[in-house]
């Protein structure tokens, strides 16, 4: 494999100190861009506590076959390691070649990510159904946004006139659940009703439009079993079908979460580990599911008096990872950390409980908690951690269970060791809550009838260069948050309008890129002019940020709705829209599934961590080149933030140039604007 593709940036690995060495903040700074995390890594070294940052170093060198994606473990004859350049290793025992093995591994990663997101969405849909049928009391959950419920119902073709909210909620929930297990051949409702006609035609033509989420996951696991499909292109198409199922589950999850918990509106909050206040009982909610965390917030408010009786000022709920993003968007709850810093929150010595639900939870949080007083509380039957408390969280008794967990945190507060307190002063103001509705309300201050046109006109007139979505995780193969921040700042300085989700949004929030007025510091002249005009139109009492927080990882479909609205405004399909995406530190299987459907939608997608596909030049070429010819989107695989900025800007500039050329030709000849991909 060509060395130019290899990601050799291993962060701190080259300068790691031996255990017992004197703490060095400059060394920690080579592992993270977050000053609060840097302080806590210094504390970890002083106390002999091992973190994910240390375990990454200990894993070096990582398996080259695994990194290239040519290690096959789908049957018990293996693992087979494929090496086309070594006699006898050109194929696996069954005869599978490098391209088959790489494609199978990629497709199975997509299936894993899709399973995570779709299970999340199914849970939300079932809660809505139970609320509608009166099986869950209003003290636990209720329909918080009936207007959005009606908009969703109208979009998916349900009658709304004269229909009671409860009955409409039941019908919408059943329609969502039908997308999981439909046995007929109709395409998933939440896919066909949210994309452009051009994408519908493309997906039908390529036979990748899913009919049921669960069926797609089952099909791709079957397709990639031993003795099944050996055609890498066919496997990749199966993976894309599964990825579109991921989109479907994500979109309905976001929609129904807004219905249950409220559609986010702009809110002022704070981010980074400095939000953990030692004067309070501190509870971190960590994971991805708002059905748990929203009730913890309610319970914390109700039990503030009990916390004061224990000697605290009250109860302070903070968020970690995407549960933190959910609470930040809707309730203004402080965001303590993104995924890589979850252990460090415990090491402040002031975190009294960490309540976890699903996804991205490191088992090591319990090991770190053993050195402190922090109670780690697991709440999902699929997520159990040895040694942690386990609470059987059920929606019908949600508030009562949440109170039980808050009371456990209050008891834990009395066990603090003052000698272990290491609370950070680092925190930044954050303006969050930018649902698509909130973003369109902002743009609508200039053009209420065509809010997306405010963006597209600014692009065509050269004021801004396009729109970029930042998404994805933390990956300790690179300096924590560095790639996120370097590429974010590079695009902002070049007049790109930026939206962000997930742990990428967390990196921006912690670094001050979501602070009120931050666009004045980080934006180029065109972007500053554009956002100043929005601000002067009476945008929000909080002020506008440089980066707009769209929510958690599952909320990436808000960005998809944005590029779809822009496509409709421009009268083109998505592959013509000046919109790009970047996952600078992709890590989870969920990032693989998201990136795959984003490319299928027609968006150039940068990934800053080399995916495990370099073992096959064919599969690598499909993702980076052939995908463009078929879908209009493609992967930009580049671990270098500087060149990544250049390539993303090139992609935007090329699309804007083509739009202008085609518009002139259409005006001159009275023809349609463009042909789609």
Could you walk me through the main structural features you see in this protein, from its secondary elements to its overall organization?
- This protein is an alpha/beta fold.
- It has 4 domains: 3-62, no CATH class; 98-261, Substrate Binding Domain Of Dnak, Chain:A, Domain 2 (Up-down Bundle), CATH 1.20.1270; 273-420, Rossmann fold (3-Layer(aba) Sandwich); 429-669, Rossmann fold, CATH 3.40.50.
- Helix content is 49%, strand content 10%.
- It has 27 helices and 16 strands.
- A 6-stranded parallel β-sheet has the order 6-5-4-7-8-9.
- Helix 26 links the parallel strand 15 and strand 16 (634-637).
- Helix 5 runs antiparallel to helix 7 and helix 19 crosses helix 24 (556-570).
- The longest helix is centred in the first third of the chain and has 35 residues, at 98-132.
- Residues 1-24 have low confidence and may be disordered.
